[in-house]
Amino acid sequence: MEDADEMKYFNFKNYTIEYEIFGRGKSVLLAFHGFGQKASQFRILEKSLGAYYQIFSINLFYHGNSSISENPIKDYFDKSDLRELLEAFVKKHEIETYSLAGYSLGGKIALCCLEILPERIEAMYLFAPDGLKVNPWYFATSHTQLGRNLYQKIVENPKLFLSVLQGLSNMRLLSKKMHSFITYHMENKEIRKLVYDVWILFRHLNPDLQKIKEILGRYPIEMHLFFGAYDVIIPAKTGKKFVKKIQNTDSLHIVPLGHKLIAEEMNGILMDILKNKKDAQ
Asked: Is the pLDDT of residue 4 over 70?
């Protein structure tokens, strides 16, 4: 296992993974950040998670300096690729078992890791995880040529799209918070392109919720799902439906926050959970 440092790089086949290591715990936690963020985001939770875990916080592709070179055969990254990369990463670091943390987009990645390598996982910490519900706009954009063409036009000129959004907001068909969230991601061309690139690359990386339910019934994996009470992006009702599906309502934690759950306020909640975990050992 490596010592903590600033930034590290793992090269495997056509992948370059940038990551950092922090925390003073004995167990290992692999952490995946949200869209538009970086691995360093999880340092906010070092006070809590870092007291129990050594955290390997990983930059997703198109974020930081993580990259994937062009593949002449396919233009996507799927579960078979994830499995191969994950197995190589933990082998390189001599990690036998580990826990996973993921926020929003990173939550979807963590759920896919759970699906493909459940026997290695001890616990899950998912913060407003994506992937629990199909987003029709995401599906249309990433899985259809018409959707791709339309979004590419929006990348170049978003004025009409933003006008439609404003109209929906004025008619109260779109909440102010959702309108603000979408506008933020659409006003800047660099962010618009990042949205498109990430959606296209990960379009086949969607967790199989039925399989995950079966896995959680078979393996003793500790599960914690955190949702913001005021989150309009991935609302708490999404989490409520999921925990009913996996028949584990105790795993749900609804916190007095919005969508930004990787925040200082989470440390107290996580410290209580980890204290109970230590007491039970």
From this structure: no
In the chain, count H helices and then E strands.
11, 9
Cβ–Cβ under 8 Å, residues 84 and 15: no
Stated length of the chain = 281
The residues spanned by each domain of the chain are 5-134+206-280, 136-200
Q: Do 31 and 106 meet the contact criterion of CB atoms below 8 Å apart?
A: yes
How are beta strands 15-22 and 5-12 bridged, if at all?
antiparallel
∠256-259-261 over CA atoms, to 5°?
A: 70
Distance, C-alpha 82 to centroid of its chain = 14
pLDDT tens digit string along 240-268? 999 999 999 999 999 999 999 999 999 99
Q: What CATH number matches the domain at 5-134+206-280, 3.30.70.141, 3.40.50.2300, 3.40.50.1820, 3.40.109.10? A: 3.40.50.1820
Which of these, 104, 88, 8, lies nearest to 54 by C-alpha position?
8
The radius of gyration computed from the CA coordinates of the chain, to the nearest angstrom, equals 19
